[in-house]
Amino acid sequence: MMSKSFGTITNDVSNAIGSLRRDIPETIQGFNALAKASLSPGVLSALDKELIALAIGVSSRCDACIGFHVKALIRLGVSREQLMETLAVCTYMGGGPALMYAAEAVRAYEELSVRKSATASA
Hints:
It contains five helices and no strands. By secondary structure, the chain is mostly helical. Helix 1 crosses helix 2 (25-39), helix 3 (46-60) packs antiparallel against helix 4 (63-75) and helix 4 (63-75) packs across helix 5 (80-121). Pfam families: CMD. It comes from Candidatus Accumulibacter phosphatis. InterPro entries: AhpD-like, AhpD_core, CMD-like.
């Protein structure tokens, strides 16, 4: 049994961000503009940029970051091999704590990939 659901985590955080969007709309608009500009493809692809974002989420031990960036990576067609190589670098740079969150990123990938497959099949 999973200790946490990344689908639930991302849904709960999205709902909470909705409250922030209502109460501090300029801040959220600015953050969204920063995210859009930062993640848009350029010299690095959108996939490469999302892998970097996931690596920072793993290193920062941020469950919601892991969930959101894994969802984006799945949408962009990340391969399991690309994900695993990124998590290997996270583990190298962050040691044991990064390894624990790299494992969480694998769980997120497996959980959210199954959800995407189930949605696509329906």
